[in-house]
Every structure is written in C-alpha cells, then in structure tokens.
Amino acid sequence: MEIRLLQYAVEIYRKKSFTKAADSLHIAQPSLSQQIQKLEKEIGVRLFTRGQGGVIPTPEGIRFIEKAQQILRQHDDLLREMHENNEGIGSELTIGAPAVTGGHVLPLLIKNFLKRFPQMKVRLIEESTEELENLTIRGDVDLSILPLPIESNQLATHLMLTEPLLLAVPREEKDWMSEQIRHLVRSADENDQVTEGTIPLAELSCSPFILLKQGFGFRRIVLDLCADSGFQPQIDFETSNIETAQSLVASGLGVTIVPKMVMRQNANVNPLYIPLQSHPTRTVVFAYLKERYLSLAARAFMDVYEMERLETSR
C-alpha cells in the first residue's frame, strides 16, 4: 500500500468531496476515483459513500482514516526528524494562538525568535481555542498557545504564564450596579486604572455581561467563575474580540472579566478595573500533540520565551 493512497483517502475525508480533494491534491478527479477504487479492492472494504452532506466514510472507512492519519503523521515526523538530525533546525514554524493572548505575547516573542533564527519563517494562525485544539491534533499547527483547561487528552502542555483576572466595569454609575460597585466607581479617580478595593463576583449576579463567543477558552473560564460564585451570568453581548468587549464596557453596556495582560492603559477612555476578592487567575500553556515529534524550531521557540521571562524577572 502506497503512502500517497493514504493521503488521497484522508484528503477526501477532510474535503467531503472527490472533486475538492482532487483540486487540493492537484490531480484529475477521475484519476482520484480510480486510485480509491484500487485501494478499496486491495483492502477489501468500501471506504466512502455519498450522502446529503457530500462524501462520507463508511464505518470501516472511519477506522481506516483514523489509522491512515496516524501513519501519515508518523511518516511526516520521521522525515522531519531525520532531516533535522542531518541539517539542523528547519525553516518554518507554525504557531497558533487565540486573539485574546496572541496579540499581547507573540509580537515581541516572534521578533526575538527571528533575531536568533533569521532563516526561519513563522506562520501565525489566530483561531478560537476550540479550533486551535483541533488544528494542533491534526498536525496543522506545530505549537499552540492556549489557556487551561484543555479539553483534549491528546495534547501535551508546557507552562507559559499565570496571570490575574480583573473585572472591567463602566466608569459611570448604572442602574444595574450594586451599591458596592457604585461605591468603587464613585471613589475612583479619573486617572485610576485599577481600584484599591476588591469585590466579590457575586455582586455581579444582576449585571449585564459581555462575553467572548462559544469556542473561546476564556469564555469557559468566566462562566466557571460565575458558577463558583453561585450564579449564571446575564449575557447581553457576545463578541470574538476582547478589545470589542472592553469598548462595550467603556460605553456603559455591561461588565466583563479580562486577563491582566489585555487591560487598557489609558484610564480616561477605558473601563475601570476592579480586583476580585477570590483573586482568580488563568494559566496559559504551550500545547502540542503528544504522539508527534516536536520540531527543533518549536523547542527553540519555547526556549526563547523562557529566556525572555527570566530576563524580565531580573
């Protein structure tokens, strides 16, 4: 059985179409169909059927695709490892990160990485946490920066950072604010970014919340914090951008919780930040597939981050 036949079957599974798979593989569709028929004859089972949603795998086809993906990953890993043993660090690294985190930790990190390895090409993929987990499992991303918890047990993690979470509220009093929140808002100077006082999250049980959309790991963190405080938040707005969430808060439309790293610096036009009494944090990790060879470039990228962190802490 040839490796390319496994590649053909996996691509048809991904595209759910012989025509789209043929375009992606740069071969003629009739030729692709013939090759799959040849493969099915060799293994003695039918791999695909046509359904309403396009081409779908048979039960035997699902099992075959799972094994084929494992073989292809091992094949690619072996080639990459042998190449790196002979030639040294490669020339390309693909990094995945959600926008909440990527825009704050990656620019300087990538800059310093490229200073040390100018021959490298870094490709950045920004997606939701859920999609990044899928991309990392499929091997489309070498390394992802993700918040805990991670849903898949197929991913290994390496600690990156742990940071405080802060409540963001409007700077003007609103009818839905509790008296404790009103007091902190009234007491804050116009130049204050963060209040001196803290507040229990339960004080926000009647406040309108602005959250990230489904699929973002940080949304789960906020919902879990609210559940631990005994309430389900009233969600008035959802967005895929933490900056948009903070702008909506600044406009008086609700409250949100943000990681400290994304806290805005200009106090006059931004939310007021209040520490929570429970002192919640979030932990961010490098994530990669356990069963895959971790490239020298990915290892070097994590090493550069660690050196940055040590230099900053001195």
TrEMBL record:
Superkingdom of origin: Bacteria
Calcium among keywords: no
Gene3D superfamilies linked to this entry: 3.40.190.290, Winged helix-like DNA-binding domain superfamily/Winged helix DNA-binding domain
Metal-binding in keyword set: no
One protein family per Pfam: LysR_substrate
Signal peptide: none
UniProt KW keywords: DNA-binding, Transcription, Transcription regulation
One term of GO molecular function: DNA-binding transcription factor activity
A GO CC term attached to the entry: protein-DNA complex
Domain HTH lysR-type as annotated: residue spans: 1-58
PANTHER family, sorted: HTH-TYPE TRANSCRIPTIONAL REGULATOR CYNR, TRANSCRIPTIONAL DUAL REGULATOR HCAR-RELATED
Family indicated by similarity: Belongs to the LysR transcriptional regulatory family.
Protein's name in the database: LysR family transcriptional regulator
Protein source organism: Neobacillus rhizophilus
Upper lineage: Bacteria, Bacillati, Bacillota, Bacilli, Bacillales
